[in-house]
Design goal:
This protein is 27% helix and 25% strand. The strands form two sheets. The protein has a seven-stranded mixed β-sheet with strand order 6-5-4-3-2-1-14. The chain has a seven-stranded mixed β-sheet with strand order 7-8-9-10-11-12-13. The two termini are 12 Å apart.
Length: 264
């Protein structure tokens, strides 16, 4: 497996930064996690053509994770009208996505049956029970997170490696359970280094991300969804996570393919 970070910033990205999003290559299949408003630009910066994407996973209904999807589908409609877009999403968001498409480009719904013919939804009704086999060797599992709206953490696994993405969340046991023994945990740290969060918290500190990785026995931790992407902010977050996690902690650069280091 290998992974490319398209952005690591929180909902309001600083200048020169992008909202958190990832492309994971699992057994030759490209899985895009979340579609921020600038997703086409982010993919272009990574030299990934949207038509190369095999799967899209949407974690929740907040603009920094969802609003790029309708324009990504417009791109497909205009340039690759025969492509099938496979979208993993909470079941109750399917109608919302249809409405967003209608706002962005009504022709996709009314001039041809794009929505029914070119989009295949793989709905998540109960995250705890969700299991999708992408191939004989590659699976996707899910868990509910602690956020302001229903939100889904994602684990992508092959025979010998896995990547777990916390999505937006306060510290919560379902994410820890989903990430057990994962090769790589990508966990949000939107509250900064160690500032005590309110209760209940809808985001995590870097120290809490480290605690989640430690309790999950993860091999490596990447911090994401950062509010402070400055060198000082990143270094502080990494130090805080290392206080609670004994493994490798990183904040990685965007638009670079990075192999998943650890295997089971």
């Amino acid at each position: 497996m290998k992974i490319l970070q398209l952005g690591k910033a929180s909902a309001v990205p600083p200048e020169g930064q992008y909202n958190a999003s990832y492309v994971i290559d699992a057994g030759g299949q490209l899985i895009l996690i979340d579609t921020p408003p600038s997703i086409i630009t982010q993919l272009n910066n990574a030299r990934i053509k949207p038509e190369q994407i095999d799967w899209i996973a949407i974690t929740h209904q907040h603009g920094d994770h969802l609003l790029g999807l309708p324009m990504l589908l417009v791109y497909g409609y205009a340039l690759f009208p025969d492509k099938i877009w496979r979208i993993i999403v909470q079941d109750f968001l399917i109608d919302t996505i249809r409405h967003l498409i209608e706002i962005a480009y009504p022709e996709l719904l009314h001039k041809r049956p794009f929505f029914t013919n070119n989009i295949q939804f793989y709905p998540i009704s109960n995250p705890t029970d969700f299991l999708l086999e992408l191939s004989a060797r590659t699976t996707i599992r899910a868990a509910s997170t602690c956020h302001g709206v229903p939100c889904t953490a994602i684990r992508i696994g092959t025979a010998d490696q896995s990547v777990t993405y916390s999505a937006d969340t306060g510290f919560t046991e379902p994410v820890v359970e989903l990430a057990q023994n994962t090769s790589l945990l990508i966990h949000e740290a939107g509250l900064g280094a160690v500032k005590p969060p309110p209760a209940p918290a809808h985001h995590s500190t870097a120290e809490q991300a480290g605690t989640a990785a430690q309790r999950a026995h993860a091999r490596e931790l990447w911090l994401t969804h950062l509010s402070d992407c400055s060198e000082t902010g990143i270094n502080g977050a990494v130090r805080a996570a290392r206080n609670s996690f004994g493994g490798t902690v990183r904040v990685v650069d965007d638009f670079i393919w990075i192999p998943v280091t650890y295997s089971f």
